[in-house]
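User: My advisor asked me to double-check a structure prediction for non-reducing end alpha-L-arabinofuranosidase before group meeting. I don't want to rely on an old file, so could you generate it fresh from this sequence?
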Amino acid sequence: MSDNAVRVTLHPAFRKGRVDRRLFGSFVEHLGRAVYTGIYEPGHPTADEHGFRGDVAGLTRELGVTVVRYPGGNFVSNYVWEDGVGPVEQRKPFLDLAWRTVEPYLVGTDEFLQWAEREGIEPMMAVNLGTRGVEAAAALVEYCNGEAGTRWADLRIANGREKPYGVRLWCLGNEMDGPWQIGHKDAHEYGKLAAQAGHAMKLVDPSIELVVCGSSSMQMPTFGEWERTVLSYTYDIVDHISMHAYYEELDGDRGSFLASGTAMDRFVDRVVASADAVGAERRSDKKITISFDEWNVWYLESRFPGEKNLPIQRDAPRIIEDVYSGLDAVVVGDLLVTLLNHADRVPVAALAQLVNVIAPIMTEPGGEAWRQPTFHPFATTARLARGEALDVRVTTPSYGTARHGEVPVVTAAATVDDDGALALFLTNRSAEPVEVEIDHVGSALAVHEGLRMLADHEPAVHGPQHAARVAERCWGPVDVTTAVRPAQGARTTVRLEPESWTALAGTLTTA
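Assistant: Sure, here is a fresh prediction for non-reducing end alpha-L-arabinofuranosidase from the sequence you gave:
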């Protein structure tokens, strides 16, 4: 094999871990139009009797979302959940300090949880550890999960919901390392509060899983030390530590942007190392896993003016409604490759967000809903990635980037189900086509379906017409009879188009 050849080695016996279905989560925050005219719009032609949009619900099912995080995000750090339950006509609007928007409280805890239940989505609730603390957090768990006969459970029943919701996943605040956060704390302050709140929450319901805040990004000046300090207080209480990361093309640096998956990979490795170091110091056999509960392409530096520059607004203003290209979709696919390759330590993840706000689904008030280009790789991966992630070995040349140094030209992830069903995901980051040799010694490989996203060079434009044009030009089936060539012995060749993400479905069985 030449120095420039690419080889991907697969074997069904070499596995990293089961792919948790919660890896395909998303996020709904009270931000912009994520809730109002997003998932919820009474009077819309498709709205159900509860006011939730049927067209959005249908696209959410098609997207394959399994978990939705709620109600924030930065929003949660000044949220008074008690004001968002009970009769809607008695709820008082409040000024959300995070996004400088008047929140009408038309959707609160019950409305969201019942929507999730109807849609078969697992909720992931966050508690306010910015302006509130232990008592309010434990009370919310009791309200959601408690049996009749206690104060907060009885309030839920009085509000019309007798059966407990049984919410399993809980976030202990949001991005508490960030100076932008309402109630921002240093690692010691937050670690102590998170431990106290988590302890009380598990006394209410010992079955819940807790997510403690990790660093808001790998670029935070406290990264690493934050994880070590926070986990020194919470290691025995929590189950997961959060990770958040957003990626964008800066200054036309396409090569670095296409390598965002490598940056994510390094971030995961460093957080795992930090968590395991704390465990080693404690001589603990417990492994803290990761909830990567905010990730996406977000043009944060180049398009978003910053929270402080937002005027106070009402009526679901249009905030952070990034429009995506085929290039953005290729990067999203590559980020999914990274998450699958860490299935042993990343059981939970959430694409931020679901509707309108840096989202795969867009809507118009009173009008249609449509798929952004980023919708397609997510939906395809959620559909195909089943069973266990394989320990895929990739031999590939690298290329240099300004932001990430040397990075692989080709990345790959694969999953195999108990019946031998295989899903293989491949990214070609180079501007040239690549021939990939799939080495499957001792196994028979058959490919029967393929889908591909191509990067484009056109600027993204708001609206369903643009999204449809991108899909027509960049997204579609792979002709597996020409793109996939069985070769002699246990080797199959796959042709990858320039700057592309490809998903192949088939079988991998022991010969």
